[in-house]
Write a structure and sequence with these properties.
The protein has about 325 residues and is of the alpha+beta class. Helix content is about 30%, strand content about 20%.
């Protein structure tokens, strides 16, 4: 038995570490925009504070002497077992969701592939998100409901779904500065809202005034205008693609008598690898004002395809598309 603990995929609290409270706002995304006086550089700074602080907290947690082991995902384990004709034949994820996703373009998918290969050298048993399933959640309407409950929400939303999924045709938010974020259950590739950095496209500084956070705010407003109650698990300042999850703790364990306990040397190697990748990303894919960065270092939401309104069992990138918006 490996040194690990079960997870339902939501064990790590979605806590806003940027220093902004949305308690008094009807639309929680307005809070950060107001706190930043609508300035893209300040919005980017808040996103950066959140992801840097979270990585620092997770680093301390995972390297602590009393760390109990990685948190595995039991539902994903059962799904994988069912696919391989194991002990859970016919198992289905009971959680149905309704979301609006942004799908990464080819350049981002290729970058994810490079990173996944680097990570696999250290964690061979890490579950890797298939590239056709990669997604960034712009807005989660609801999660963990039954199929009929989700279908009822789709009926309420349907009058606005075309407008929402095509919203990025006219409102093009850009993401930059990729960096890995992690915890004891998963790893993700995150970005920051752009604030005038160099671009491989013809864009002015003014084009970055409409940020990814503004997009999240608008999708929230358009969705809630239908009367749908939005029950999202998180509104934290994060823009990320989950690229891997732990489904076993064996690689991060060592035998101690008849017990398996966490292997601190393996965890140190894991975090060292993540930090090396992040240093490489910053060197190769970040840019400052006036200097374009390498392809794959930035992403305009709506590139190749619009937003994907998705329903069903989609926790790991599955589900069914209600409507896919137009891209550019």
């Amino acid at each position: 038995m490996s040194a690990s603990s079960p997870s339902l995929g939501v064990s790590n609290a979605f806590v806003d570490l940027s220093g902004v409270s949305s308690y008094a706002y009807g639309n929680p995304y307005d809070a950060l925009i107001d706190a930043c006086e609508n300035r893209p550089d300040r919005i980017q700074s808040r996103y950066s504070i959140h992801r840097r602080t979270r990585n620092e907290q997770q680093r301390e947690k995972l390297l602590a002497a009393d760390f109990p082991g990685v948190t595995v995902d039991p539902i994903l384990q059962k799904l994988m077992d069912a696919e391989s004709n194991g002990s859970n034949p016919g198992f289905l994820d009971p959680r149905n969701c309704l979301v609006f996703w942004a799908r990464p373009p080819r350049s981002i998918r290729e970058l994810v592939g490079i990173i996944q290969r680097k990570l696999s050298h250290v964690a061979r048993d890490l579950w890797l998100m298939p590239h056709e399933c990669l997604h960034m959640t712009v807005l989660e309407i609801n999660h963990s409901l039954t199929e009929p409950e989700i279908n009822q929400l789709v009926k309420m939303l349907e009058i606005k779904i075309p407008e929402i999924t095509d919203h990025v045709l006219r409102n093009r938010a850009r993401l930059v500065k990729p960096m890995l974020g992690y915890d004891d259950s998963a790893i993700a590739l995150g970005f920051l809202p752009a604030a005038g950095e160099g671009s491989q496209w013809e864009r002015s500084t003014a084009d970055d005034e409409y940020t990814y956070h503004h997009l999240r705010r608008d999708v929230y407003d358009l969705s809630s205008s239908t009367g749908v109650i939005i029950a999202s698990r998180y509104t934290v300042p994060s823009s990320h693609l989950t690229i891997g999850r732990f489904v076993t703790g064996q690689e991060f364990s060592i035998a101690q008598g008849d017990q398996a306990v966490p292997n601190p040397e393996k965890m140190q190697e894991w975090i060292r690898t993540i930090e090396e990748i992040n240093a490489w990303l910053q060197e190769e894919y970040w840019s400052e004002s006036g200097h374009a960065n390498a392809e794959g270092g930035q992403w305009i939401i709506g590139e190749e395809q619009g937003l994907d309104c998705r329903k069903g069992r989609l926790w790991y990138g599955g589900g069914e598309t209600v409507r896919l918006g137009q891209g550019f």
